[in-house]
């Protein structure tokens, strides 16, 4: 069929729907509904779709469109749930089970007939993690079922006046409900509030006399203090005392002011340090910011004891002959500091006696490459871009030059740009079936680095590499496996990914020909080095990147600024499939 996706943003769920529907042979076009008031009407006239699907839509579809065409709305709530903040309420009320409903658009919000529904278990994670994983998995099942039913033509959607459906309206989840009472709220309550707003909209609070939004929250088992006090820093995050414990908060976002009408999230320490610096400069590293805050740095060892209940973004664990280097950075973005610390951890892992080393990205984002928010906040964005890409290249090169063991990239969540190239540097890529991959840089106005000109053609061939990077469209995990972008699909739920990876790694480490495979890998690296050294790939890529970074007129700078500030300028630029733009 010809299907039109009407979206407010081409987010992770919209990308997954585009990729999976395309895999099934449908022609899928996309329109950004917020691009202009008549964008949806124009897209309908241009593409003449047989079916319109709205995976993520913040504004109502025009009445003439949904009256004349079948329009399916993806609602992140069970049948009968209505309102604009379904997941917020599910987390706040600690619902053990929730669901996704695909319903037909009509005048009343979320009141249309039901085409499909799929339940899911609510894992104790942040809202954005839940959305990208359990919600996305359920939405995939429900949308594909609804499309199949529509195509067959005989299915009659279920009206919501069915007495078996309990209709519940849930209003906006306002900041008054999110606000933390540091004197009275328990750590459990604080964490629930933080997790319910981890990406958007954050929890409004006050620190150092300034209003900020808190993003993300993790428990701390040892540090204690007066409720509300800042206790320590770690890897750019701050630790804050509760009445019965403490929590780590990785990111902050200043409230809008006349001086900065569109502030954005970034590491908590750098935001607070910027408040204290009379020049207004914001440090990009964690060390200077920590000292200016007069807070102690509380580093966590890479190998945390099993009984510890604290947060750190990089960990190492070892099971016999297998090392697991786990990392998890907010939104998958890796700043210069993140890259330097992860490289140091990788070198630590290489010093351990293992034959298999797993880069364990966990259940959420694997990596999305350089940290555009930190770059945008830097006093010298071009210089910080250059430092960040070189730090990413150092990390990827270390993986490529590892010849004494097999390296596996465990991609449990979405990966894009340089973050995906980090995974491709490994010997094997194991990818969860629900992940979405974006092996390109073009939509941010970049040529790319991280040795992509070596690793991508090596896996998929020169022609496919050109197609992937030029078309710059999302790739489903299933298609990635078919074309050789990844080696193994891992068809498990998000919460089962790490245990499954541990089992698969044990199987790999136990193969009789492991030593032969390691030797063959080392020989292949030597042969490739003789044909064209890695240093040449790096020099060529970085020359192109440097020219972009230090060109004030390069579109990268405007695209980056619009992206981190969530301005319409970014949404209008990247989608070549948007109505009115060339295909």
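^ Assign residues to that structure.
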């Amino acid at each position: 069929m010809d299907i039109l996706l009407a979206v407010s943003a081409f987010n992770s769920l919209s990308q997954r729907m585009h990729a999976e529907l395309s895999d099934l042979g449908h022609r899928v076009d996309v329109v950004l509904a917020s691009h202009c008031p008549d964008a949806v009407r124009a897209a309908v006239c241009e593409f003449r779709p047989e079916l319109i699907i709205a995976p993520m839509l913040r504004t109502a579809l025009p009445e003439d469109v949904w009256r004349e065409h079948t329009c399916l709305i993806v609602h992140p709530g069970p049948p009968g749930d209505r309102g604009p903040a379904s997941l917020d309420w599910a987390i706040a009320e600690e619902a053990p089970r929730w669901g996704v409903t695909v319903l037909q658009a009509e005048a009343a919000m979320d009141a249309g007939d039901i085409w499909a529904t799929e339940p899911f278990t609510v894992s104790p994670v942040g809202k954005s993690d839940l959305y990208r994983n359990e919600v996305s998995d359920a939405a995939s099942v429900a949308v594909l079922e609804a499309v199949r039913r529509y195509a067959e033509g005989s299915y009659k959607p279920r009206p919501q006046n069915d007495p078996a459906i309990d209709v519940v309206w849930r209003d906006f989840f306002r900041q008054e409900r999110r606000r933390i009472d540091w004197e009275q709220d328990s750590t459990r309550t604080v964490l629930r509030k933080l997790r319910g707003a981890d990406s958007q909209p954050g929890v409004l609070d006050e620190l150092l006399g300034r209003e900020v939004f808190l993003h993300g929250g993790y428990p701390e088992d040892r540090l204690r203090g007066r409720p509300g006090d800042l206790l320590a820093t770690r890897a750019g995050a701050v630790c804050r005392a509760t009445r019965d414990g403490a929590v780590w908060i990785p990111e902050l976002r200043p409230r809008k002011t006349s001086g900065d009408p569109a502030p954005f999230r970034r590491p908590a320490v750098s935001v607070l340090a910027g408040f204290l610096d009379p020049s207004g400069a914001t440090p990009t590293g964690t060390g200077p910011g920590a000292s200016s805050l007069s807070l102690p740095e509380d580093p966590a060892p890479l190998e945390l004891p099993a009984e510890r209940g604290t947060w750190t973004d990089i960990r190492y664990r070892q099971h016999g002959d297998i090392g697991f280097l786990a990392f998890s950075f907010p939104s998958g973005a890796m700043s210069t500091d993140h890259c330097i610390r992860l490289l140091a951890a990788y070198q630590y892992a290489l010093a351990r006696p293992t034959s298999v080393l797993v880069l364990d990205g966990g259940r959420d984002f694997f990596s999305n490459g350089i940290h555009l928010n930190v770059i945008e906040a830097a006093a010298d964005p071009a210089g910080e871009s250059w430092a960040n890409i070189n730090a990413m290249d150092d990390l990827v090169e270390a993986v490529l030059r590892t010849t004494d063991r097999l390296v596996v990239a465990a991609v449990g969540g979405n990966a894009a740009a340089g973050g995906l190239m980090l995974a491709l540097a490994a010997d094997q890529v194991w990818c969860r079936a629900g992940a979405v991959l974006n092996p390109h840089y073009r939509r941010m106005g970049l040529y790319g680095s991280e040795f992509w000109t070596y690793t991508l053609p090596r896996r998929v061939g020169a022609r496919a590499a050109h197609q992937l990077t030029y078309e710059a469209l999302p790739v489903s995990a299933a298609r990635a496996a078919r074309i050789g972008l990844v080696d193994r699909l891992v068809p498990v739920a998000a919460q089962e990914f790490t245990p499954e990876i541990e089992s698969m790694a044990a199987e790999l480490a136990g193969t009789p020909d492991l030593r032969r495979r390691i030797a063959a890998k080392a020989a292949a690296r030597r042969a490739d080095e003789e044909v064209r050294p890695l240093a040449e790939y790096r020099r060529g890529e970085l020359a192109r990147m440097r020219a972009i970074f230090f060109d004030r007129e390069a579109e990268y700078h405007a695209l980056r600024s619009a992206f981190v500030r969530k301005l319409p300028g970014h949404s209008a630029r990247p989608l070549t499939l948007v109505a009115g733009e060339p295909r």
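The two ends are 18 Å apart (CA to CA).
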